[in-house]
Amino acid sequence: MGVTGIEDKTEENPSRELRARVRMSDKGRLVIPAPMREALGMSVGGVIDLRVVDGELSVTTLRSRLRRAQERARRYVPAGVSLADELSAERREAAKHE
């Protein structure tokens, strides 16, 4: 189980495409090379999200998935509006009527 090569496409691709070819161990384990773990913000004990889409394995951190969800939600929330504040106000109002 080892990395046979890591290619950093920094000059060709400004979004910093990293590529590596690794071997899977007999127990199905893969080693994610350090530059890739660093680029994804992975750390020991961190939650990793794995999914297969169109026959490809996607590896992301939970933090990255949450950030992406927050960015999508911002499209529907007007600037200056706090959904947390609105929810708290609704809860206080509902509690008055219980």
Query: Rounded to an integer, what's the Rg over CA atoms?
Result: 21 Å
Sheet bearing the most strands, described? 2 strands, antiparallel
Write down the overall mean pLDDT.
84
Number of strands: 4
SSE order: EEHEEHH
Outline: elongated
User: What is the count of helical runs?
Assistant: 3
Strand percentage: 15-25%
Overall tally of structural domains: 2
Strand order of the largest sheet: 1-2
Q: Residue share in helices? A: 25-40%
The structural class is: alpha+beta
Quaternary structure: single chain
- Give the terminus-to-terminus CA distance: 61 Å
Q: Segments where pLDDT lies below 50 for 5+ residues?
A: none
Question: Can you lay out the helices and strands and say which pair or pack?
Answer:
Elements: E1 3-8, E2 18-22, H1 34-40, E3 48-53, E4 56-61, H2 62-74, H3 83-96
Antiparallel strand pairs: 1-2, 3-4
